[in-house]
């Protein structure tokens, strides 16, 4: 079985329990030591006071002057000992001979212990080992009326008695220490429980590994990631997210409100709303991003929202080109059926002997198609643009729209990359075809692509209902569309190309009564 790893909360609880226990034990030991010291100090003061009282008693001085001091002093000393709670009261001669002792057999024997300072006239306390064991004692001189030392008084309390008193105080001491220890343990347990909830019971190694993986994934993933808190503040944004949203690496965004960060309008609206989004295209600068946003929850609690971004700019360009190719293919399929019908008609006319009519019918449509092809190929040397215009012409024919390539259209060398050129022309033509759809005949779209005064000029005019002046400013904004089902990306992509190359775009009224979109781009080559 794998070794069980302790969580951070468990380790913290164990550490706190050990530290608190040691602190309480150290405090209790210190309190015991202080109590013991206080007990000894109190004992010293008590025996000194008793000894001085006995030494100053006239009865003691009078008894020392008699022939048999012990007969008087022994009862007096024992009464004093019992009254004061001391362990011995010994009255002695200056030569150490005892006149009183708790054990009568010791009377007359020499006193055991130091008496030097008292013989010198100074009362003192000391700790010595005597006949009753170790004791705290005081020795005080007894003076007669001529201030001569005629005896000594020693009063003592044994260490055993002091320790018994101290042990009597221990229940109170432990009665204070035990609740303190229980309170500290409860606080540590509550803190570890809270920490366990916050760390989800993970151990240090697991959290370290999680952070390393988390950091590696955030820096290596090729999708932009933005995490917001419930109050719409940025909790996290990875490197790709900064790049796609146009945020510098030095721009402080963490813990900043979304409203206070310079974001592309579409991204700011999506992040600020907090609504769920699935594969929603948004425009950010010169990029088309696919956004997915959802609310995140953990154990039923809302944590915030997560936004992921994928760069779809190149894919959108390829999709636009694919749409043109698909439209051209569909047009060719339709023309194949039409050509087959005309071929059968021609063959039937030949069989009927009407050869002249068959020749006129067979060459008329061929001449019109060849004329359009010659005009486009002769005016536009860019193969991709020529193919796009031919495809759009076929698509327009299928829709009953007359797509006119202006006679003065001429483009020998495009200053734009072919992808950008196709984006502008293709989307403007598609927008014009949509504008004239459903309008009364004749439906017409005019296209001009050429160099004018060192500028590449692209003009697309239609005979549709036109664009209201108050809507012109919204025309190149993402999401704006004249179609109820449209997503409004075509003109937004055109606007991106214009901004990227430092050009301009305007919308005016065309000669046919519809809209005229004019795009001007510098002829000096690509700009970034």
TrEMBL record:
Residues 421-525 form the Histidine kinase domain. Keywords: Cell membrane, Kinase, Membrane, Phosphoprotein, Transferase, Transmembrane, Transmembrane helix, Two-component regulatory system. The chain crosses the membrane at residues 170-191. CDD domains: HATPase_DpiB-CitA-like (cd16915). InterPro entries: HATPase_C_sf, HATPase_dom, His_kinase_dom, sCache_3, Sensor-like_sf, Sig_transdc_His_kin-like_C. This is histidine kinase. It catalyses: ATP + protein L-histidine = ADP + protein N-phospho-L-histidine. It holds the Pfam family HATPase_c.
């Amino acid at each position: 079985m794998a070794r069980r790893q302790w969580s951070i909360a468990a380790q913290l609880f164990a550490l706190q329990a050990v530290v608190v226990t040691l602190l309480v034990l150290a405090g209790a030991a210190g309190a015991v030591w202080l109590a013991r010291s206080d007990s000894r100090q109190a004992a010293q003061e008590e025996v000194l006071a008793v000894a001085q009282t006995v030494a100053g008693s006239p009865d003691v001085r009078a008894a020392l002057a008699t022939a048999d001091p012990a007969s008087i002093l022994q009862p007096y000393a024992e009464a004093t000992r019992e009254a004061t709670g001391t362990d011995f009261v010994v009255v002695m001669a200056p030569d150490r001979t005892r006149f009183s002792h708790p054990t009568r057999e010791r009377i007359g024997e020499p006193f055991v212990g130091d008496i030097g300072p008292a013989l010198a006239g100074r009362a003192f306390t000391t700790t010595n080992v005597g006949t009753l064991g170790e004791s705290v004692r005081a020795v005080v001189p007894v003076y007669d009326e001529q201030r001569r030392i005629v005896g000594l008084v020693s009063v003592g309390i044994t260490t055993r008695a002091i320790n018994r008193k101290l042990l009597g105080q221990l229940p109170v001491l432990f009665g204070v220490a035990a609740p303190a220890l229980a309170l500290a343990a409860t606080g540590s347990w509550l803190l570890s429980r809270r920490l366990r909830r916050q760390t989800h019971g993970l151990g240090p190694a697991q959290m370290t590994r999680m952070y390393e993986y988390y950091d590696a994934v955030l820096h290596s993933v090729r999708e932009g990631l933005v995490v917001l808190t419930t109050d719409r503040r940025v909790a996290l944004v990875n490197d790709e997210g900064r790049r796609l949203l146009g945020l510098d690496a030095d721009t402080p965004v963490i813990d900043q409100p979304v409203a206070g960060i310079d974001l592309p309008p579409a991204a700011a609206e999506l992040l600020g709303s907090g609504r769920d989004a699935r594969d929603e295209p948004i425009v950010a600068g010169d990029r088309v991003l696919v956004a997915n946003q959802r609310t995140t929850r953990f154990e039923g609690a809302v944590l915030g929202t997560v936004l992921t971004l994928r760069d779809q700019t190149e894919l959108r360009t390829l999709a636009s080109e694919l749409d043109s190719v698909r439209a051209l293919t569909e047009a060719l399929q339709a023309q194949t059926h039409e050509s087959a019908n005309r071929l059968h008609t021609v063959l039937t006319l030949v069989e009927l002997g009407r050869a002249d009519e068959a020749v006129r019918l067979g060459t008329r449509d061929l001449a019109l198609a060849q004329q359009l092809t010659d005009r486009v190929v002769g005016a536009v040397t860019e193969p991709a643009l020529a193919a796009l215009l031919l495809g759009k012409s076929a698509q327009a024919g299928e829709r009953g729209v007359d797509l006119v390539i202006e006679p003065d259209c001429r483009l020998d060398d495009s200053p734009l990359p072919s992808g950008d050129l196709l984006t502008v022309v293709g989307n403007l033509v598609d927008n014009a075809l949509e504008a004239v759809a459903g309008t009364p005949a004749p439906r017409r779209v005019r296209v001009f692509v050429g160099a004018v005064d060192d500028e590449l000029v692209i003009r697309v005019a239609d005979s549709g209902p036109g664009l209201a002046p108050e809507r012109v400013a919204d025309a190149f904004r993402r999401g704006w569309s004249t179609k109820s089902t449209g997503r409004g990306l075509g003109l937004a992509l055109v606007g991106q190309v214009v901004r990227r190359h430092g050009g301009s775009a305007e919308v005016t009224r065309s000669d046919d009564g519809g809209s005229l979109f004019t795009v001007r781009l510098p002829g000096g080559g690509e700009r970034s």
